[in-house]
Write a structure and sequence with these properties.
Blueprint lengths: L2 H13 L8 E9 L3 E3 L8 E3 L3 E9 L7 E5 L7 H4 L8 H7 L4 E3 L17 E2 L3 H4 L23 H5 L4 E2 L4 H9 L5 E6 L2 H11 L4 E7 L8 H9 L5 E5 L10 H17 L4 E5 L18 H15 L2
Parallel strand pairs: 5-6, 5-9, 9-10, 10-11, 11-12
Antiparallel strand pairs: 1-4, 2-3, 4-6, 7-8
Length: 312
């Protein structure tokens, strides 16, 4: 059982007399580096101050927990809220996975940036929805939706609040602190967060037992790396893809083709990899924001089926 969730659950359940068997447990906590000594002339008089930290949210099943936890990493310019719920009020992937029995953790973006080479420097600011509209597959241009779009554009104002760029240059060390409190994990990364997911697979070979990426930037195609990180460890990989991939510069098709290549290489070497391209299954209209689309629960079900087949 996941040690950290067990501790939180024990404390929460002890005080929840009226709700002795909750279906889900929600919470958050800070994972921090060592405290930093500030000089006496610093604001608030100096002394020991909290080091770099990341907030981690979690959703855990009240009963029947799986032994494997899931860590969800947001895409670039997004926050962990993209997994907690949809902006039009439906349960998010975190709730879906926890309901299926998986303790689920959500990091900020991108708290584990330093686990892979070439991580971005600290930045701040916001993305604008008009610049991401076409890139993320909502429609051909801002304000015009694709006819079959599954993105709930009527609730767009709620989505705008999720667009926030925040980075943490010491994120690798912070993630180390979190991983020390967990057992086996599956890492799921969206878009630029996919690069972090692959980095974590290399950084934590004993703990990361599966990698899931949703339209990542991009999949690794180095045969030696794939052999070491997936085939030799018998670690499965799943990639998820929506519709209208001929968007962006370079085209989103470039990302998709990298994952198909990785899938083929892993499979040819005797490993386990799968690519889910929703239009090929007759499911049209999904955007880059698969976890926000109106059929997000259906896609979460596909992920859960894969977890139960390949990881449990």
């Amino acid at each position: 059982m996941t040690k950290l969730i067990s501790l939180f659950a024990a404390g929460l359940l002890a005080s929840a007399h009226a709700w002795a068997n909750p279906p889900l447990i929600f919470g958050s906590f800070a994972v921090a580096n060592e405290p930093v000594e500030e000089p006496a002339e610093a604001a608030r008089g100096g002394g020991r101050n909290a080091g770099p930290f990341s907030m981690v949210g979690f959703v855990a099943p009240g009963t029947a927990r799986k032994e494997v936890s899931i860590i969800l990493i947001p895409g670039g310019g997004l926050t962990a809220q993209q997994y907690m719920s949809t902006h039009d009020g439906r349960p998010g992937w975190a709730q879906e996975f926890a309901t299926a029995g998986y303790p689920t953790y959500m990091t900020g973006w991108p708290s584990p940036v330093s686990v892979y080479p070439g991580a971005p420097a600290d930045t701040g600011g916001n993305y604008q929805v008009d610049s991401t509209w076409a890139l993320w597959g909502l429609g051909p241009e801002y304000g015009e939706s694709y006819p079959e779009t599954k993105f709930p554009v009527d609730s767009l104002d709620g989505f705008n609040a999720m667009l926030r760029v925040e980075t943490n240059s010491s994120g690798g060390a912070v993630m180390d602190q979190l991983m020390q409190q967990l057992g086996d994990v599956v890492v799921l990364g969206h878009s630029a967060g996919g690069r972090n997911a692959f980095g974590m697979a290399s950084r934590y070979p004993e703990q990361v037992v599966g990698v899931i990426v949703a339209e990542p930037v991009p999949c690794p195609t180095d045969e030696a790396l794939l052999k070491a990180d997936f085939v030799d460890l018998d670690r499965p990989m799943l990639s998820l893809w929506g519709d209208n991939l001929d968007r962006g510069r370079p085209s989103m098709l470039t990302r998709y083709e990298s994952c198909v290549t990785a899938d083929n290489l892993i499979s040819e070497m005797g490993g386990r990899a799968e690519t889910i391209h929703l239009p090929s299954m007759g499911i049209n209209g999904n955007t880059h924001l698969l976890m926000q689309d109106t059929n997000s629960s259906q896609i979460a079900g596909m992920v859960i089926d894969w977890l139960e087949s390949e990881v449990d």
